[in-house]
Amino acid sequence: MKLMTLLGLSMALAAAGDAHAQSIPKYGEDARIGYLRQDDRCQGYIGAFMAVTEDRLSPSAEDQALMARMLQFTDRIVYEAHKYAEQVGSDAVTDVVTHVTTEINQLAHKYDNLPEGAVRAAALRADIAPVIRDCLDRALVMDKPPE
Question: φ, ψ for residue 146 (rounded to 5)?
Fold first, then answer.
């Protein structure tokens, strides 16, 4: 259950949403909500990837390299999410985090039929890695947080 705990904690940080992801109907086409969702989704997937890339779960060299690259840019994603969160207000942030949490929780249970440990972690990493790569591509053009 450590994976579920780490996924839950990562959602407390929340930050991302895929450009093609569903909008949250209550907010219509407010672009700021879309960007906040992208950033919250990225944060959630970053937390999930960290949880399944622990040494004890036998990550590949490629997974470890992606993790190292991810750690170089996570601050930009968090900073970007914070900027949008300030603009849209706490109710919208709560709705976005709830929406993203549901997605992450569904992913966390996708491989419940596999044994816990390295096998399940590898399956989850395979699903999460493309999302992380997309997040990193976006992060390259984001502002660095102030020092």
Answer: -60, 150
Task: Give the pLDDT band of residue 30 (cuts 50, 70, 90).
Answer: confident
**E-strand stretches of the chain:** 15-16
- Grouping H, G, I as helix, E, B as strand and the rest as coil, residue 129 is helix
Prediction pTM value? 0.80
Residues 92-130, buried b or exposed e (16+ Cβ, 10 A)?
bbebbbebbbebbeebbeebeeeeeeeebbbebbeebbe
- Residue 20 has φ and ψ, to the nearest 5°, of -100, 5
pLDDT in tens, 98-111: 999 999 999 989 99
First-to-final CA distance of the chain: 36
DSSP letter, residue 142 = S
